[in-house]
Structures are given as C-alpha cells and as structure tokens.
Amino acid sequence: MDIFLQQIINGLTLGSVYAIVALGYTMVYGIIQLINFAHGELVMIGAMVAFSVINALAGTHLPPVLIVLIGVLAAVPACMLVGYAMERIAYRPLRNAPRLAPLITAIGISIILQHVALLVWSRNPLAFPQIIPFVTFSVGGAIISGVQIAIILISVLMMGALTFMVYRTKLGIAMRATSQNPQVAGLMGIDIDRIISFTFIVGAALAAVAGVMVGTYYGIAHYGMGSLLGMKAFSAAVLGGIGNLAGAMLGGILLGIVEALGAGYIGDLTNNVFGSNYQDVFAFLVLIGVLVFRPSGLLGERVGDRA
Amino acid sequence: MTLLELRGLEVAYGGIKAVKGISLSVAKGELVCLIGTNGAGKTTTLKAIAGLLPVAADAILYDGAPIGGRRAFELVRRGLALVPEGRGVFGQLTVEENLAMGAYVRSDAAAVKLDLERVFSLFPRLAERRSQSAGTLSGGEQQMLAIGRALMSRPKLLLLDEPSMGLAPLMVQKIFETILAVAREGVTILLVEQNARLALEVGSRGYVMETGLITLSGPACELLTDPKVRAAYLGEAD
C-alpha cells in the first residue's frame, strides 16, 4: 500500500470538510470582521440533528442514501435557524461595540450551544448506524472509500455553487459590496442587515452539511466535536487569508493534507516517539507558522483598492 | 413644486452640534448648491438627508413626506441618491458590478440595461473599463463611476457631495458638464461644493453655510456678485 497516496486521499477528504467549515468563518469575517467562534458548534448541531434523524429512520426500509439525505434536510434548516438567531440576538446589538465585545460573545455562544447540546443529547456520542455498505475502490496502491468520494464530490459542488453565488449573482455582488463598504452599500438600497443575516444562514447551511460529512466519515457525533473541528477550520481560514473565499478553500484542503501527511509520517520521522495521535498538533503548528511568517495568509487581502 | 425641504434641521455628533437648525428647499427640476468652507456642516447635512445620520423625522420633508431618520436603503427606493464625499466606489468590484449595485433596488432588467448604456454613453471611459476593478481607476474616473452608479437608480433627487474634490481641472470641467447634462434631463440636484464659483455657475440658486448655519441664500447670479461671498469664497478682494 502506498502510504503517501493514501494519506493524500485521507487529507483531501478531511481537507474538503475543513474548507467547507472555513468558508463559514471567512464569509462572516469578510462581512462584519468578526471571528465567529461559535461556528464550529453549528457543525456539531448539524451532525447531531442529522444523526438523530438518521438513527430514527435506520429501522425503516428506506434506501440508506435517502435516509442520509433526510438527515441532511433536517440538519440544514436547523443550523440555518441557529445561525440566524445567533446573529440576530447576540451579534447585531454589538455591531457598533468595540471589536472585543462580539468576539467574547462568540466564545460565550459557543459554550452555550455546547451545553444546550449536552442537555438535549447527553454526553454519550451518537453512532452512525451501519446502513451504508462499506464500498472501497483501489487507486494506484491506495484505497478510497465511497464515503470519501461522496465527501470530496459534495464539497467541490458546494464550493462551486457558493463561488457562483458570490461572484455571479446580484445577491453575491451585494454581499461583496457590503463587506467592502457597508455605508455606501446602504446608499445603493442594500439592506445590510438582511445581507448579514443571509451570510450567517449560508455559512450555517454549509456547516450543517460539513457536520453530517465529518460525522459519517468518523461514524460518530458528540456534543464537543465542534470545538476542535472549528479551531482547525479557523486555522485553515487564516492560512488561506481570512476574508478570502478562495483562500478558505485552499487553506482547508492544504491543512487536511498537511495533517494527514503529518500523521502518516510522524512515527517514522521521530522514531516512534510521537505517534499519529499527535495529528491534531499540525493544524495549530500551521496556524502559528502563518501568524509568524505571513499574517495575511496565502491569498490574504489584495491591496490596491484605494486609488 | 417643492421636492425637498429642510425645516430647522439639527444634527449632532455626540454632544456637538454640527448642523444647528437650517432650513432650505429644493424645487423639482432645480439645481441648487450649498457652499461653504471646510467644517461648515455641508456633508453632515447631505448625510442626514440621505438617511445616514439620526435626525428628527419632520426636519426633512421629501416629496411631501417626513423622512428624517429613515434609513438610507429605504430612501433609495423612493428616488433619493447620494454620491458620497470621496466617491465611495467599491474598489474590488468591477465597474460593471458597481453600476449593477446602483440599480440594486430595480427589478426592470430591460430598462436597467438601457440605463447602463446611457451611463456608458455619458462616460465612454467607463465603457472601456467595464470589467476592470474600480480600485484601479483614476480619481476622476471613480467620480464618473460614482455619479453613473447613482444615476442607475433613476433618482428623482441627486445629492452630490464635493464632486470636484481632488480632481485635476480638466476632469472637474468634465464632471460639471455631466452634472449640467443630468440636470437638463430633469433630475433635481442638491450640490455641495467647496469650489463655490463653479457651483454657483451651474446652479440656479445657492445657500451659503457657515459653522452649522445658513448665513446667506439667493439666486446663484446674485451670490456670485455678492461682496461677502466674493471676499470669503471666491478669493476676490472688494
């Protein structure tokens, strides 16, 4: 088996999920310059809602793909609602407050959502029922599973759709206009409150799908899964250049690959002093590296817009 | 018929009053200018009219209705457009996307397309640069874009804030020719300018603002020959 290729495939899978989650961080940052630390919790809620629905339907004789689809269709609106509510209730009143206030609020929202999830679902993890047959394909000495293929394809599709929306539709142009100059956007007749709500809702929908994907990949979902994943996706967004959509996608994929390769080779490189359980370290090493050497990120803020 | 009327408009930033109770009116189809030195409160007045600053509702009457304190995005739908000081183009959006944002409130795609062609014929330079990002345009081109963008909303009342600011004389002339052309098409204009001579030459009436108050008003030709205006704003000795 080719370890290198295998780890690239694993990294691409995980990286796609990071990219989808990172898009949520970067979109919100782009429009209101807030790091929404509660975004990871939306991923968790998406996974938990979907898993509850999927588990409830697992006994029926519906086709497995349909069951997962129903789970996603339940998770997406649930997350959209939570995303909308957190902006409306917690962030909007602080729009003109010093930037530290909404940031701390975001951390608070994250803790609240975790504990609400703890109350609703208890601390026991939800398992993904064995309904999807484990299909694998062999590519050049490595193995790729059906779930991995699905995750990568769905992520690419969502990234394409989002890019089209932001760059080709009137609503997307209005989003970019609002992120550049909200006051002038208002002078164009753009209701910036609605654009900001919309941004949160789109980010939440992506997070919901990401939650289902990562839960399905690991076969498990629990109330605390959002924080580490969220921090990693945030690192990915910073790696790509926060506020930049293409950057979030690139950062996510790169971070997934770095993490997978790191986990794959760390044992060999350190004579088994460190094992693949150190996988989680790499995301944050990358984050520190970016902050030290290139704080604006790989595709960070294009300058030259002020003539 | 009066399109815009200010009745004792007051605007305060924190505890400091920038506009201390001014009254003025603009009739439909008129080009009125508001002149004065830096810090007189001209920009604040325009921002208040456009809905960017909180003011008392009945201090501003537009088309017969009180609009003071209404938010900017609602007023655009009622035909009020502000070209802000410093132009405010969206630098990372293309020229065409900027213009599309000007027409954000409109849903009549066919008519919007015609208006786009009209703006391009008014400013051929913009047509040449339609897919360039607005941040790469020169100051004058950005001013053309800002005016063109405001026209895309088909305004009834166009508020222009210092359109000549920071532009080369040739470009200023071009911009003012366009303002006159727009006015001739029937758009009502309230023009704020530091360049008093230019403003009074194109405007039919003028108001002079000093430290938050209107100190003088009248037909533009009279203001141009008024000894106080000549001394203070036109740089001429008695």
What does this protein look like?
The complex is a heterodimer of chains A (307) and B (238). Chain A is mainly α and 307 residues long. Chain A is 72% helix and 4% strand. Chain A has one domain (16-239). In chain A, α2 (39-57) packs parallel to α4 and α10 crosses α11 (279-293). Chain A starts with a helix and ends in a 14-residue tail after the last helix. With 238 residues, chain B is an alpha/beta fold. Chain B is built from ten helices and ten strands. In chain B, the strands form two sheets. In chain B, strands 6-7-8-3-9-10 form a six-stranded mixed sheet, with helices on both faces. In chain B, a hairpin with a 2-residue loop joins β9 (205-210) and β10. The A-B interface holds A 170, 173-174, 176-177, 180-181, 183-192, 302, 304-307 and B 50-52, 71-73, 76-77, 81-82, 84, 88, 90-93, 97, 100-102, 104-105, 133-139, 142, 149, 153.
Characteristics:
heterodimer, A: 307 residues, mainly alpha, two-stranded antiparallel sheet, two-stranded antiparallel ribbon, 11 helices, 4% strand, globular, disordered C terminus, B: 238 residues, alpha/beta, six-stranded mixed beta sheet, four-stranded antiparallel beta sheet, 10 helices, 10 strands, 26% strand
Gyration radius of chain A, rounded: 19 Å
What structural class do the secondary elements of chain A suggest?
Answer: mainly alpha
Portion of residues within helices of chain B: 25-40%
The share of residues in extended strands of chain A comes to: under 5%
Low-confidence stretches of chain B: none
Instruction: Tell me the distance between the termini of chain A.
Output: 55 Å
| DSSP strand count of chain B | 10
Approximately what portion of the residues of chain B adopt beta-strand conformation? 25-35%
Distance between termini of chain B? Answer: 37 Å
SSE order of chain A, one letter for each helix or strand: HHHHEEEHHHHEHHH
How would you sum up the global shape of chain A? Answer: globular
Adjacency order of strands in the biggest sheet of chain A: 1-4
Which pair of chains has the greatest number of interface residues, and how are they split between the two chains?
A-B, 22 and 32 residues
Question: How many domains of chain A?
Answer: 1
Question: Could you give the order of strands across the largest sheet of chain B?
Answer: 6-7-8-3-9-10
